[in-house]
Design goal:
about 230 residues, mainly alpha, Arc Repressor Mutant, subunit A, Tetracycline Repressor, domain 2, 2 domains, globular
Length: about 230
């Protein structure tokens, strides 16, 4: 007796290699696995098979969603990196030329970004800042083509108005901001172990950076406690 083949309610058979219903999170899981492997061994050294194994799926499933490695990398940029950077960028673009406000926006923006996306600093260091990083070209074209210039221009305007110390270079202000935020975040496991500083969380690092910048720019930082004068 020939077995009766059950019909699909939709009237169409499921193609070979297609995910079953209810697996909408497979794609997100594949991107998560890709980011973890990119951080661990680097994008160029990571194969699609390794990503598939880390995500617990077959290579065929990975190919179904992304086709090839280039499309997977583009998905990481478009669906993770750009959305992660968007809030900080919007806040800075909407800000004024007050140097304290600009630095505040940048530091708090990076702090919020790192808290929400802890994978971003190590991926940024490895694949954007390091020579030969596979994401450098993507990020300079899509994520940060105008932001550093905008910050430098606003710092220069503030300096011309006497609101930024004259011995500071507006361009290097941007470099300093990156160095005081993304680098400490990426190296947190090292310096926390080195100083036995498990009590210093991301918020403590942010407060320290804001205080350091406030003193360095010779500006009074919003919320910084004023020194009380002793009664004579």
């Amino acid at each position: 007796m020939t077995a009766t083949r059950k019909k699909n309610p939709g009237g169409r058979g499921r193609g070979v290699g297609r995910p079953r219903a209810g697996k909408a999170n497979v794609r997100e899981g594949l991107i998560d696995a890709a980011i973890a492997e990119f951080i661990r061994t680097g994008i160029r050294a990571t194969s699609l098979r390794v990503v598939a194994e880390a995500a617990g799926v077959t290579p065929a499933m990975l190919h179904y969603y992304f086709g090839d490695k280039r499309q997977l990398i583009l998905a990481v940029v478009e669906e993770r990196l750009l959305p992660a950077l968007a809030p900080m960028r919007a806040g800075i673009e909407a800000g004024g030329s007050n140097p304290v406000e600009l630095a505040n926006l940048f530091v708090n923006g990076v702090g919020g970004m790192v808290a929400a996306h802890p994978w971003l600093p190590p991926l940024w260091i490895r694949e954007v800042l390091c020579e030969g990083g596979a994401l450098r070209e993507h990020m300079f074209k899509r994520a940060i083509p105008q932001l550093p210039q905008l910050l430098a221009q606003r710092f220069a305007a503030a300096q011309a108005q006497g609101r930024l110390a004259p011995d500071l270079d507006p361009r290097l202000m941007v470099v300093s901001l990156v160095g005081l935020t993304l680098f400490p975040a990426a190296g947190a496991p090292i310096w926390r172990q080195m100083f036995d500083a498990g009590d210093l969380d991301d918020d403590a690092l942010r407060r320290h950076t804001l205080a350091l910048l406030g003193h360095g720019m010779g500006a009074r930082w919003p919320g910084r406690s004023k020194a009380r004068r002793k009664p004579e």
